[in-house]
Records
---
Amino acid sequence: MAVFKMPSLGADMEAGKLVEWLVKPGDTVKHGDIVAVVETQKGAIEIEVFEDGVVEKLVAELGQDLPVGAPLAVIKAPGEASAETSEAAPPVAPQSPTEPVEPEVWMEPPSAPPPATPSGIAASPAAKARAAELGVALESLTGSGPGGAIVLADVETTRPAATPSPAEDRGAYIAEMRKAIAAAMARSKREIPHYYVTHTVDLSAASDWLSAANANRPPEERILMGALLMKAMALAAREEKAVNGHFGEDGFTPSPAVHLGLAIALRGGGLVAPAILDADKKSLQDLMEAMRDLTMRARAGRLKSSEMSMATLTFSALGESGVEAMAGIIVPPQVAIVTAGAPGPQALVRDGKVVAAQAVTLTLAADHRVSDGRLGSKFLTAIDAKLQTPEEL
Amino acid sequence: MTEDEIRRAYIEELVRVAPDLDPAEIAGSDHLQDDLELDSMDILNLVIALDKRFGVEIAEAEYPQIATPDLAAGFLASRM
């Protein structure tokens, strides 16, 4: 019997609001299933479960603001007998809640059983409520939840594009996100002794290879320079383990896997950095697909809990236009971030002569408790070397 | 399709790619990167969407031709 708790979805999260359950008591769940949606300062996050079992009881109610560590549900292992939920779900002390939470509320069952589903259509309570609010018939929707169940996102997609959220809601959301970013970055600068190394990479070979590769591809198969940079970085991180992992109470733990966080700017001033899991093992095409998928879902506010909590190293790029270089701030508990300025023609020296060539300036910010400038230098040099043979990425 | 219809369809696809944009706030002269803050991934996704919707394949060198709704309406009309 395990208590499924509100996960930490990043160093800047203290609490989240439960907005949707995608499971009910009696449902079988397995590792990786999305069981709930939690609204945070970084948008709505789909919460995954990390064990197999059967949902014994939903402890948290929809609409509750719950601190990290608060019980959400009780899940019994396969074959395990049911237990009294009052014994199985002890209240957990909240960790730094932003607002007082009444612990006894966690122990109560959902306030009311879900209303009967029209025409036997499976739909989450939040989806039903939103559909009623918008006047959308559930029968007209296609469900994307477990077993084809209609979830909140399916209802939201029916909203015509001409009726966006009010601007003031967007402003408030961005303001909250800025607070979260400020808290995490202030903590990072306070606790992590950053050092920086910068290196300009000649992108001639990578640009030429990419132009030739994309020329004969339909748009959906084209690859961006960002994918080459990320793949080169992921491969280099496999070699320089001191930049890839987490720093906790017991010090640094290198990660055997490279889960590369990708900083995605949201219009209006927000920023999220969800992870592409096992980025080093993906082909360039698969990495592009993962980047596209992540960007789209970040914009729509539908990221997964694993993506928000598992990054081992972060990449942040200014994009096609902008200044030459940018120095990043490490996202705790990670120990390094690589930032890329805008790629463009720069004056490089080749064979003693100054030439104009396509180049990008990379800057590594790394945790001095774990590594030093010599290692950081090796890491950026390794990224450079991999970009000189793009066909091998 | 008229250029107005193409412009409306372009903005529909643009908002589908970037749902945090408000279609009512997008002007015909708004630049995808400079005004609407799209990044290279957003623009590639828009190119894919326009290809599917209009049957017009846009080469990388032609991306500047769809950089604003007004430019795109003229460019797409000429290719359809």
---
Amino acid sequence: MTEAPTSPPSDGAANTGARVLGLYRQLLLIRRAEERLITMFADGEVPGFIHLSVGQEAVSVGVMSALGAQDTIASTHRGHGHAIAKGLPLDGFFAELLARDEGLCRGRGGSMHVADMSVGMLGANGIVGAGLSIALGSALAHKRLGREQVAVAFFGDGALAEGLLHECMNMAALWRLPLLFVCENNGWSEFLPSSKQISFALADLARAYGIPHTRIDGNDVVAVADAAADIVGAVRAGGPAVLECMTTRVRGHFEGDAQKYRDPDDLDALGPLDPIRVAALLLAGLGVEDAALKAVADEVESRIEAAVEAARKGHDPDFAAAYADVYSPAEAV
Amino acid sequence: MAEVRYLHAVNRALADALTADPAVVVFGEDVSEAGGSFGATRGLRGRFGEDRVFDTPISEAAIAGAAVGAALSGLRPVFEIMFMDFTTLVMDAMVNQAAKARFMFGGQSSVPLVMRTPHGGGLGAGPQHSQCLEAWFAHVPGLKVVCPSDPSSAYGLLRAAIEDPNPVVVVENKALYAMKGELPDTPEPMTIGRARTLRTGRDLSFVTYGAAVHTCMAAARDLAAEGIEAEVIDLLSLQPWDFDAVLASVSRTHRLVVVHEAVEAFGPGAEIAARMALDGFDELDAPIMRVGAPFMPVPFSKALEGAYIPSAAAVVNAARRVLA
């Protein structure tokens, strides 16, 4: 999966400093949040497994910039960026990853199952590809209920090998559902290069289902945002599309994975592709001062520190309350 | 009160649910144009339109997964899996997604979906179209499982399942589809988790569900001819199952035989027997017996299948053993 992007690089023509700075703020928020998680995980403060999206932030930020709060997304095990970009409150996010009762999921889901229905975030997912059919059903509901909303299914290139993707693409095309498939193609399927697992190009698969496919540079947040704006509009009006974002996985499959299977040169080559660096260069070209970037960085840092501190002060969840949520009471719907 | 077939009661429940709640949608393989492979959804497309009653591709995993997403986004999906054997293909959506969403999202959401699926042998349908796999679903926290035994419960439990905010598996025994029984003119939803006593007796209790209810009723009649009075408890719901009703029956009769068409090993009867052996120990005058299918795939040959499905004679034999 190393084909060149099919879309032109963002030319900045439609860009204003304020717009790009807004995207940059989101990129930085995700990056700094995950960097904070790296140290907290290493310190044993974050239990379980975490899968970081470092290097892939531009996909989350760019796609979400084209969505409204009522649009829905189904995410993956590598979903922190999707969650934060969709607008999950940072306090509830950190509290969930620290397994606190104050967490968005009251400490029962953790990193791989974080969700916030109030902002249309239908959940991260511990099963590769499972979010595809959830997003399909959400798109079905949007269409059936006559809403002007779209659903977005995020998935990695590893999920290209899952049969569910094929079932969902067929149904979405057949029923012309307002469903955007967003592939975060980072070239890796867990510990193996996807080239050793996937025998086809997503573009060809999309063509087989008659679904429009666009491949872009997923490390250029403006390219993603521009493409998403166009494509989401088309999906809202007329049916599914595939947006393939070529991006980079910097950390391992999971945090703590030393990536011994990976050529060190491969990792060294990622520097220039860093979406934050790409965005910062664009901002410099637009004449945005370093001081503005510094102000954003300070703001992001303080938001994250506040969220971490609040999460640390949280409480262990209560077993009886958890037990009571195995089933919904009859009056729940 | 009219006499209707089981299949008609299912159809009526779907029609009434579609009428009562615009969020209800019915989908599955061949449920719309063809009206269902067994005819359970016949006529619904004409009445409610193809926006609400629609056919899907042969894609069980995506059908079930779409139901989860639709249920999280405001619909009340009812989908059909043509044979329970094919629920092997829906397991991620049902077990990892639908069952857990409420819990793992901290109570933010409910997943009000219904999976209808027929189980059971007797039609010579062979090993991949006849299994009773309800124990799989009853084993998963977050799912409910019901198994109606006649037209009135087929109606009442399906309506209840559609109204329930939780994911519910409705298991219909396909050998019962043609069965006739009474259905009130204005039938009501039943309460999930409540058993009913179909026959009272002082000597032993048959606890059963689905098509095996009728096997137990036949066995009870045979035993009555010998002066042995068996109580027959129709569970109707397996998850949750009516522990209180079973314990009350055992407290009256002091002998228990659990009967189902599902394979005996690790079947629903194992759970019921274990619970009664613990909490009903003081009430029991004999070991608990289970009658279920042997540990064998469901065979095709009538000669084999006839021996495979638990018979009234097998139930009578079990009764004699607990009375000995």
---
Amino acid sequence: MYKIFLYDGTFEGFMCAAFHIISEGIDKDRAIIVSKDEYQPMFIDSVREIQNDFKTFLEMRKGIIEKADSNVFKKIYYAFLSDTKDKEGYILRYLFLLLTHGKKIKYLYSNDIVNAVEKMAKNVSREIGKYMGLMRFCDTDEGFLYAKFEPKNDIIKPIAYFFKNRLNEFCWVVHDVKRNKIAIYDKKRVQFLTCSNLKLEATQQDEMFQMLWKTYFKAMAIEERKNLKLQQQNMPKRYWKYLVEKN
Amino acid sequence: MDIFEKLEVLGAAAKYDVSCASSGSKREKHFGIGSTFSAGICHSWTDDGRCISLLKVLFTNECIFDCAYCINRRSNDIKRATFTPQEVAELTINFYKRNYIEGLFLSSAIKNSPDWTMEMLFRTVWLLRYKYQFNGYIHVKAIPYASLDLIRKTGFLADRMSVNIELPSEKSLRLLCPNKTKESILKPMEFITKVAEEEKNFVSAGQSTQMIIGATDDSDYKIINLSRHLYKKFKLKRVYYSAYTPVNHDPRILKVDSPPLLREHRLYQADWLIRVYNFSADELFKSKDENLDLEVDPKVMWALRNLDRFPIEVNRASYEELIRVPGIGIKSARRIIKNRIFHSLDFEDLKKMGVVLKRAKYFITCNGKTFERYLIDLPPEKIKQKLIDKNSLQRPQQLSFFDREVFTSVITGEI
Ligand code: SF4
């Protein structure tokens, strides 16, 4: 019989669930961590709902950093943002490996779990890196800068913290259209909300700058060096949907 | 002329300028709009595959000079335009806050006089920093013959400054740029180096320069040697190479049908070997007239000439030896050293670490064994035949190749 641990879908909540499994000595191959929203009840399972407790989360974080280092912690966080199925299962097993191997976990190249987590984290980190450059904000009548995107992974948090630093003098909204998640910044702090029918329109003046940007983008291409394949390699089509210069 | 037309003309006129990197700024930030990100960020890629990270424009394309290779030279009959400082500043701010760009790259032809032009560049940057409180990245060109005082004032507001060396030898410069002298380029370069050493917050992301490749008969040896000299003497952050795109018909210029992109790419690779891998120019070249091998990368070229140093044993070689093996980069070398502490490495382990065995297998052993038996004692011509880089012959990598490499390894590397 499997032991199911339900958590609230957040990274902190997940870490709390993992904490219970590890500290209670539960067999990792019998434990399943699943987000509340995704869980489909099966009567043969034993189900426990884990509360998201920030202190427990901090304890886990401290533990991981002590056992390995903060890079490994960040890797785990990024892997958690991945849209890979059963990322919880991989990360839970990764945490068990971390308990036995400590720092050395980084060098277990041939281990499937380590490999999978490494891959997930890399994928997320790459997507964050791309979106730092490829997000496009527009001015709205409401006085916010507004940017839409549909990332593969759930990266609105790191993206929002990046722009908190970058666009610190403006109010802005970042909108993950696929997940109905938004981040709002009011020049002081960022808040994360879910929201299903957000409609903000670009101002007329903004449209002028969009046109200027397109003009510039076109002017920059060197005909003699045209290489659309290289362009797409660097800027895959899935990023184009909200890209001013590509629409 | 409206702003759309100006942007079109003055953007297009700047597109051959190579350096668009926006990394490495250490300017202190106090308040205001934006920030520089130490690794630099690409915001888009043009149809030719080069990344856009800065709003790269000329302030004006009206020029009193007449350089043979330049589209903007006085004797060309082309559409001319000139921005105002206000226009450039507003474009920059508005593009920046929409996340189109990291900042501004402002270059210019020489209108009226060198000082007039430099003054306009200074005013533009001043507006951005003081009126708009812009903290993002700014790269400004220093204009040859401009007063050092103007250059100095501008340098305190910029993250990076550059004077273009343009051509790899004085002879070529005399031939193609009758109005410029070696001194008009080296003097401001030296000045910027000197002030940057003495003062804080002066061009804190350093100085770079650019050289045109293929318009003259200068050899790769000369080019690389000059770069090495520039890195050393002026502590330049980067020397950029720009394959000459034929824009003018001028008998003084070597005839080029299309820009020598592959040669440009090989020069970047050689430059990288010298800056990062501690190769010397003399190791890479046999003579002053020598050019790099277009068929294989310069590390392979070097290794084939020095086969007596190979194969090296991966489990014992030093870091310096490892990074000289074709296919083993800095990252792989570091991984090898860290990992062999735990257990001795075989070829499978290397693959998993991301070592490109396609090249490396001819030059290494793992625990005394070669990758495949027949690899022992293969003559250099045979190895070369196998390593000829067909892809790059058809589609050379472009321009900011190495910046992108640095960029991705900082952002996505070992997180
Ligand atoms: S000074 Fe500069 S802009 Fe003027 S012709 Fe020479 S290279 Fe071109």
---
Amino acid sequence: MTSTALRGRAWKLLEMVTTPLLPSDYLDLVSPLRAGADLRGRIEAVHPETGDAATIVIRPGRGWRGHTAGQYVRIGVDVDGVRLWRAYSITSPTDRRDGRVTITVKAIPDGKVSNHLVRRARPGTLIQLDQATGDFVLPEVKPAKVLYLTAGSGITPVMGMLRDTEFDDVVMVHSAPQPQDVIFRNDLHDLVADGKLRLIELHTDTDGMLDIARLDELVPDWAERETWACGPAGLLDAAEKHWAEHGVPERLHTERFRPGVVVTEDGGGGEVTFSTTGTTVDADGATPLLDVGEKAGVLMPSGCRMGICFGCVTPLKAGAVRDLRTGEITEAEPGVLIQTCVSAAAGPCDIER
Amino acid sequence: MTAIDPTAHLTAEQIEELGRELDAIRDEVIADRGEKDAAYIRKVISAQRKLELVSRGVLLFSIFPPAWLIGTAGLSVAKIMDNMEIGHNILHGQWDWMRDPKIHSTTWEWDHVSPADQWKHSHNELHHTYTNVIGKDNDLGYGIMRVDEDQKWHPFHLGQPLWNFINACFFEYGIAAYDLELGKNLHKRRRKNPEFRARAKAVGRKIRKQVLKDYVIHPLLSGPSFLTTLAATFTANLVRNVWSHSVIMCGHFPEGVQVFERRSIKGETRGQWYLRQMMGSANISGSKAMHFMTGNLSHQIEHHLFPDLPSNRYAEVAVKVRALFEKYELEYVSGPLPKQVFSAWHKVFRLSLPNKKPKVKTPVREQELIAA
């Protein structure tokens, strides 16, 4: 018998010992970061960057496969007891010797996860991790000239790139409201002092927003540069238009953060898609999604129809729903299940049925 | 359904107001639910796993009487924790709000021969929706017992104290049979129903796994302590079964708890539903440890009003619920465990015999009973 088969047998036996739990349920008690465990990480330090941004140092579990500069990682953090998942760009270089990775988080107003990470996260906390992903990355062949066009927290993936790979000719145009809002300002100025970066720092509170047409004046050879841009949608839209108009769209790489969820304010419903069966119907904001689905001929799991038995829970893949009992809005995130018998559409949504 | 309706003094408006007040209690807890609650269930789960691990470890040496005693006691407690405070409550969706896929009603499996999904259907859906409605809620006597005067007496019921005792000893098997609706499904035609066969198979799988684990693998691992470990796990299962059975009996069977006619729940409003839960459940009073070991089902009334609120909150909710009982002049059936167990058993004995005095029944009612 091969050793893999032998190990498989041993594991089967162990499962018989621990049933109905799995051996990993017990191993997780002592070694949550071990190889073979669900991917997790431990927060080891939180370093403030600006008044509302901080860098989180994470020791990833043994299953971490590393990342490419510019990629992001999805993390699951328990905020007020609720596990919430968000994506953050990795700001550490790929060859960090201690194997730690960092993300840098800017607290956005009313942002549950970002405020928690910046202001309340403590070293020692376990978080859930996904493998790094994203194609906003540097090419394998080094371009001769590089431009980084960033604004606000859009600097985070680019910082990962700056720390990872040195180029001969790099210009960065970065916008932030005021000097003290510039994340990594000291690091950037160090790079400038070492002659590794030409930095154009714009302060929008005093200078106004960057007019993309000003690029000609700020970086005259911008069209010759391989450009990575990350920031608010307005900036990226303008950049894409500008690069296309000048016939060099292939030189521009952009990264857009998650688009906002459409939630209707007036309690109205929206278009409900039952994606597994390919059914789409209009729903009002007062009819339970269970009824909406059944009326549309979708085979919906159901139970007590009054919110007590949890027999109807179904994944919410996109959009948002409103709890008809409390008015609470639940937005789609991976792993979010809703009780369709007491939830109504709060804007367009996608139910996995 | 009892001769005197203890809710007769309430007007329809009062019942709806009561419903609104209960909704407000629920909303308060939900708004306040958070980190502390999450930490609580995680701590309980972790403690249960450690206790089970240590107890099973000690039982490896169960050939020595002190090890047998300690290991058996630990394993009994661990099994009770698994079924009561952890399993029952997670399977109710009480912790789904944490969005932790490992502590979720859709993924949890417990140390019980009834598979989680089958139990969720018969318990969460049927029992909690139709609480104490004769003919709808099979928990009312589990289909084998007569627990209310208005249920028809049959000579079979003479043996119900014995059935109930046997059911207590092998309670998890009783529950599995009950979830399968075995009595109904063993009829020739239904036996072949593919849906029933699939469910029966799932139960068989779980029984096989549990028996293998408790009565073969762990005793074998104990080597020379084979027989004593076997006795220990059997005892732990027995203790867990008798304990759960006692707690469950106290929830709906003690004297003073109401049962309802099928007809009475037609077009039931939210307030009326709440009222039925209030009148159909009974509590056990006692210490914190007592509440914990019952999985907080000692707060059965609160659990039936709010089956999806985290169990660690029932104690604080109970104070407010009790105040509402007083305000609306309703009887809050509660008492210490021995008293409630005695009361429930007393009823089992009493109703094993036909009713003493034939009650005067209206023709409508008679028809209803025949229909039921």
